[in-house]
């Protein structure tokens, strides 16, 4: 993989060119000071923000919160028509954790026959990630194997070298983009490569916290009695679903019909959260997962146990967003600490 | 590719099954010839009944694949969609998405074996499909024993067919009700008790049991006493479902998706699932 150099002065001109050829999505700071991924309409008006962690992930672009599955009509012909909309889109400035989360969603949505809506969008996407020289306050992607830089999986990966970006491609679509806009780039020399390597090394030592993910995963695999953990976390959970909504790898959904008139409407899939009390409740009121404790259990074991069994790795990417959003502290970092602090029977002597 | 689009169907007939009016059987005909031809299911599978504007519900398919030209679904009125469905009339149209999940292994592990069908209440639906399939392929199975119970005579499903099966000499049918009732001269007693009295041999046999959890729980000890093991007992699980294809996350018990890995599984497999209930 040969590296290229993009002068920072050339970034906005490059993005302008990309935008002319299709949709561009990048992190933008809005007038409230929030940094969110947005569709870029006007690079002069929208403030590109590569300094802060985006509060949202790319999940809504591939798996929107309200995603029409079909329109229905029950007047003349009783029919359900598919709704698929996707256009070529370049996603710029996502971080390694968010890219890893997209790769995880690829696995989930390709199970049991590929999901039409998800892959319609995914196939039109070019992902350009920006490695993190300076991890953010709650980041622990170094402990989940999803950052701060990636070895593969990106179309292009950018590394900030101060006044320029070091650019590398991993997928054909990334290569094509580099070829198309080759006049913005110059070949990287040995010095650039050293600087890039140095940035990656330094980033790894810049984490403000260590989260012991692997020991917790090992403990969970041994089925310890976690009742005290579930009790404490469920006492603090307000059942708002914020953790699932903000999580870049939470993909549970419900399906609802939204009538637009008596004879027609839209069938949507909508984000759902396993911590909601109605998530497993059946018609008639029976609920096999009846207590908040069990719902919390469902959530954390899915991420750190079941996904390890099924897909070989936990589905937490260490982005820390659940830490930011939960005022009850029912987040991944706290859960992992609690699991690792548990006294296991074998250790009590 | 997964698209979640239901097939349009027409309600061809509606039968009120039970005296309380809460259970109705809907006979549905797929409207498009190509879809009618392509439809193929295994007894024990389910489908999403799809009411535009109301939503979808997972319901076991009560008809056997050997009954051609239509599908049957026996539906208990319990929630929003089932209530809307119960208000529909013959000739009305709706949607069906499926078939979904794994059915009973009728063409595989159950072939050549003695079959014991045990059902309670309105959980008889997919077992009716199974029984009809087996009767249509009678030579593939050994002795067929059916034990079916309901609270009262008026709560029994498929009463005309029960009478037909009772008249056959190749089905050993035991129909029971919970308490004595006027005009009932058949068996009286809970399903577990009757199962113990019938005492079907576990030799080269499989039991297919559907009913309320409490019935299944109490049916097992009398069977175990005469030598039945968990790997020859088939159950069918129910959980809240939305997608039916192992994605939406509602129905899973640990790594097991009821919609895609089930709903049918052996009791041995069920006992290995993480405790969630």
Report the portion of residues of chain A in β strands: 15-25%
- Can you count the helices of chain A? 13
Please write the string of helix (H) and strand (E) elements of chain A.
EHEEEHEEEHHEHEEHEHHHHEEHHH
Q: How many separate domains make up the residues of chain A?
A: 2
CATH superfamily of the largest domain in chain B: Nucleotide-binding domain of ferredoxin-NADP reductase (FNR) module
Task: Briefly note the structural class of the backbone of chain B.
Answer: alpha/beta
Spans of at least 5 consecutive residues with low confidence of chain A:
none
Number of domains of chain B: 2
Account of the protein in words:
The complex is a heterodimer of chains A (349) and B (277). By secondary structure, chain A is of the alpha+beta class. Chain A folds into two domains: 4-204, no CATH class; 213-348, no CATH class. Chain A has 13 helices and 13 strands. In chain A, the strands form two sheets. In chain A, strands 1, 2, 3, 4, 7, 8, 9, 10 and 11 form a nine-stranded mixed beta sheet that branches. Chain A has a four-stranded antiparallel beta sheet with strand order 6-5-13-12, with no helix packed on it. In chain A, helix 8 (213-221) packs across helix 11 (292-311). Chain A starts with a strand and ends in an 8-residue tail after the last helix. By secondary structure, chain B is α/β, with parallel strands linked by helices. Chain B folds into two domains: 7-100, Translation factors (Elongation Factor Tu (Ef-tu), domain 3, Beta Barrel), CATH 2.40.30; 114-236, 3-Layer(aba) Sandwich (Rossmann fold). In chain B, helix 5 (191-198) packs parallel to helix 6 (213-225). The model of chain B has no long low-confidence stretch (mean pLDDT 95). Chains A and B meet through strand 5, strand 6, strand 12, strand 13 and helix 11 of A and strand 4, helix 2 and strand 6 of B.
């Amino acid at each position: 993989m040969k590296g290229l150099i993009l002068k920072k002065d050339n970034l906005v001109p490059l993005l302008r060119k990309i935008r002319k050829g299709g949709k561009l999505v990048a992190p933008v700071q809005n007038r409230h000071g929030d940094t969110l991924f947005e569709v870029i309409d006007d690079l002069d008006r929208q403030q590109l923000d590569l300094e802060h962690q985006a509060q949202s992930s790319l999940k809504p672009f591939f798996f929107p919160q309200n995603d029409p599955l079909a329109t229905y009509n029950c007047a003349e012909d009783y029919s359900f028509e598919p709704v698929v909309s996707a256009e070529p889109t370049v996603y710029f400035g996502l971080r390694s954790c968010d890219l890893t989360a997209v790769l995880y969603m690829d696995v989930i949505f390709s199970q049991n026959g590929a999901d039409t809506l998800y892959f319609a969008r995914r196939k039109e996407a070019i992902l350009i990630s920006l490695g993190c020289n300076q991890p953010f306050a709650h980041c622990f992607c170094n402990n989940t194997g999803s950052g701060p830089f990636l070895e593969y999986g990106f179309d292009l990966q950018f590394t900030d070298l101060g006044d320029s970006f070091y650019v590398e491609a991993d997928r054909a679509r990334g290569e094509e983009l580099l070829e198309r806009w080759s006049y913005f780039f110059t070949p990287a020399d040995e010095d650039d490569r050293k600087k890039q390597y140095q940035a990656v090394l330094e980033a790894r030592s810049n984490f403000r916290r260590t989260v012991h993910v692997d020991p917790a995963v090992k403990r969970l695999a041994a089925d310890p009695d976690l009742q005290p953990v579930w009790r404490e976390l469920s006492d603090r959970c307000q059942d708002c679903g914020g953790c699932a909504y903000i999580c870049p790898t939470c993909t549970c959904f419900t399906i609802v019909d939204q009538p637009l008139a008596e004879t027609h409407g839209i069938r949507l899939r909508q984000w759902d959260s396993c911590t909601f009390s109605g998530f497993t409740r059946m018609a008639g009121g029976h609920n096999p997962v009846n207590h908040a404790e069990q719902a919390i259990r469902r959530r954390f074991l899915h991420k750190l146990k079941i996904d390890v069994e099924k897909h070989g790795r936990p589905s937490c990417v260490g982005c820390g967003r659940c830490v930011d959003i939960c005022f009850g502290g029912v987040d991944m970092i706290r859960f992992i600490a609690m699991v690792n602090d548990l006294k296991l029977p074998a250790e009590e002597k | 590719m997964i698209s979640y689009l239901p097939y349009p169907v027409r309600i061809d007939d509606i039968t009120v099954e039970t005296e309380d009016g809460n259970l109705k059987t809907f006979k549905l005909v797929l409207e498009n010839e190509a879809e009618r031809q392509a439809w193929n299911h295994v007894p024990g599978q389910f489908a999403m009944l799809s009411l535009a504007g109301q939503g979808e519900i997972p319901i076991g398919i009560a008809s056997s694949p050997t009954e051609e030209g239509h599908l049957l679904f026996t539906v208990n009125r319990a929630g929003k969609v089932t209530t809307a469905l119960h208000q529909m009339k013959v000739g009305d149209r709706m949607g069906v998405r499926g078939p979904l999940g794994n059915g009973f292994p009728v063409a595989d592990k159950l072939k050549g074996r003695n079959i014991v069908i045990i059902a309670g209440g309105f959980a008889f639906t997919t077992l009716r499909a199974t029984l009809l399939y087996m009767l249509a392929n009678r030579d593939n199975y050994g002795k067929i024993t059916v034990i079916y119970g309901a609270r009262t005579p008026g709560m029994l499903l498929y009463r005309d067919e029960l009478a037909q099966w009772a008249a056959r000499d190749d089905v050993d049918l035991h129909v029971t009700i919970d308490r004595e009732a006027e005009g009932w001269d058949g068996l009286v007693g809970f399903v577990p008790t009757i199962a113990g009295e019938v005492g079907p041999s576990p030799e080269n046999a499989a039991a297919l049991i559907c009913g309320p959890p409490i019935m299944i729980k109490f049916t097992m000890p009398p069977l175990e006493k005469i030598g039945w093991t968990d790997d020859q007992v088939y159950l069918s699980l129910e959980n809240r479902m939305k997608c039916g294809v192992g994605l939406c996350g509602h129905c899973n018990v640990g790594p097991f998706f009821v919609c895609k890995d089930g709903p049918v599984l052996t009791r041995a497999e069920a006992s290995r699932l993480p405790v969630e209930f």
